[in-house]
């Protein structure tokens, strides 16, 4: 296993301790619950929390900070956080203005957060829950009823976080999350599998000349297994799936993200962006904002996902607002 | 070859076209010479240029922009840029205040830049050349006489770039580069090789249970080939080599960088940072600034390097100054 790990059972709390050590002025943690929160929480503003399996960094704890999440918790690699961690995260973040709980659509996460939300509400905490499901690859999947939540999650966190920071109330912050999710679409492709530290082995087998089109961020099957194609052809596959789904139409202003799945280096992401930008121009789209980097990974999987978000004036302003988190990619 | 490439011969200009497309407001390029420059160059300020083989992104063209480089050119993957590209880059960047040419210490790069500098000086361009050699792993190497220039290069670009932006003259900007290089040390470790697109195969063989300690960013041999160790032990190997070399001593304020070599995901970098921060505390160092991410890669190599820079008030201020480049990691 070619990884920087000590005892695999400690992988998650150890990387979280590193995040805390590197951001001691901004963040504090409760590693018993694998939870990280802002050091300073404004009680008058809506809090936003999220939590899911680890292995998708910078999501989720590296997105905690002013302008993004208020707190987040991590499960084991590729497994939902336990209910008590979700509950403690809501409690740690809760403000008078209420809590928006952002959940990526996976059955494990939804069960944990549903119970945690019930427990928190029973204690009088005001909250709303919102489900993110931007992945166009498959309708139902190995771990979901309905579509999966993947890299489009970044835009929900960013826009809702900016709205909360600006003082919007819980209904208004929820409406922002709803607007982003309604207008964002993603599809990914994997060239390799990846190795969760505690498993110590790949999560799926794939031939030396094969790729998985529409892969999930836990290696779930996508639309098809095909031979590897040139980068431009792969990009067109992803672009067409994403563009046609909303659909994105001539005249739309969009945010375009090329997200690396963990093992694909920066230069290759820009090869993909180069083609995606041309395809967007052919459709008549204006790329008002672009994002090329690692936003939602699958540990060290070689692969990319392509996300487009249709913008309006409100969303453009929210995406442009400042944020300060452990990752510096906004 | 599990990569996002079209024709491997076009890999570099294609990724550069992507960088330009994503930063059209900030950058312009001349892809005939694989060169990218700032759109707006202030003739009254010192210009800073660099250029080396591709495959180390975000170095070098993704570090072009206000507060960092003025222009940069790329060679093929892991090969020096041709003399004419270096010459055109100097010419495109040159200002009345002069040009600082930053060269990482590799024989190929030095030959190309030496000739380009001579040609530019013959045309009356005022310039100084500075050689970066922060890698403590080996004294001479496969491609160098003396030490190699690796991730410490980032701090030279950042600090010299900030000094130039603030209006320092050529001698003063040179002195900043000299101060950074005198106070920065790096060592890396590789768990895997990597595949240059045009080669289509790994650049060295390494066993499933092996690592290369002190590896170069082109896969050059380092100090020793050993069995993979736990992350904390690897981190201590790197830290001890870096700390003892300057040496860094109790009471020093430092910048600490954990740099991913391209195939190592964010969570693993933070596992390494977590241990490095503890070791720095044991030495009595204060980590005034930290950098965890991809700053100087070796395509998709799984591995990390650890860099420390001893700070003074001037360097702290220069590192904290704003910069705007294709990569958003400052």
From TrEMBL, chains A, B:
Residues 7-329 form the DhaK domain. GO terms for molecular function: glycerone kinase activity; phosphoenolpyruvate-glycerone phosphotransferase activity. GO terms for biological process: glycerol catabolic process. GO terms for cellular component: cytosol. The keyword Oxidoreductase does not apply. It is an enzyme of class 2 (transferase). Gene3D superfamilies: Dihydroxyacetone kinase, domain 1, Dihydroxyacetone kinase, domain 2. The keyword DNA damage does not apply. Its EC number is 2.7.1.121. Keywords: Kinase, Transferase. This is Dihydroxyacetone kinase subunit DhaK. It comes from Alteraurantiacibacter buctensis. The gene is dhaK.
């Amino acid at each position: 296993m070619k990884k920087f790990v000590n005892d695999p059972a400690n992988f998650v709390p150890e990387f979280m301790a590193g995040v805390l050590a590197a951001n001691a002025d901004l963040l504090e943690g409760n590693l018993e619950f694998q939870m990280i929160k802002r050091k300073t929480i404004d009680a008058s503003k809506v809090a936003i929390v999220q939590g899911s399996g680890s292995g998708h960094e910078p999501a989720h704890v590296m997105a905690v900070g002013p302008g993004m999440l208020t707190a987040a918790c991590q499960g084991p690699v590729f497994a939902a956080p336990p209910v008590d961690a979700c509950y403690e995260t809501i409690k740690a973040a809760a403000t008078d203005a209420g809590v928006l709980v952002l959940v990526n659509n996976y059955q494990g996460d939804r069960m944990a957060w549903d119970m945690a939300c019930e427990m928190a509400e029973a204690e009088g905490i005001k909250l709303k829950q919102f489900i993110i499901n931007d992945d166009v690859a498959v309708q139902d999947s190995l771990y979901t009823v309905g579509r999966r939540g993947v890299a489009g999650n970044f835009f929900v966190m960013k826009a809702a976080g900016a709205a909360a920071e600006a003082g919007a109330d819980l209904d208004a912050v929820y409406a922002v999350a709803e607007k982003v999710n309604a207008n964002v679409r993603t599809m990914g492709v994997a060239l390799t599998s990846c190795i969760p530290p505690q498993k110590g082995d790949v999560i799926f087998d794939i031939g030396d000349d094969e790729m998985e089109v529409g892969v999930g961020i836990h290696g779930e099957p996508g639309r098809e297994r095909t031979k590897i194609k040139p980068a431009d052809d792969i990009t067109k596959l992803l672009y067409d799936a994403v563009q046609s789904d909303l659909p994105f139409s001539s005249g739309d202003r969009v945010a375009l993200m090329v997200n690396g799945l963990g093992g694909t280096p920066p230069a290759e992401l820009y090869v993909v962006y180069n083609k995606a930008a041309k395809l967007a121009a052919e459709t008549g789209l204006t790329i008002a904002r672009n994002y090329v980097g690692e936003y939602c990974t699958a540990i060290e999987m070689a692969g990319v996902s392509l996300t487009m978000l249709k913008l309006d004036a409100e969303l453009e302003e929210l995406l442009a607002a400042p944020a300060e988190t452990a990752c510096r990619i906004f």
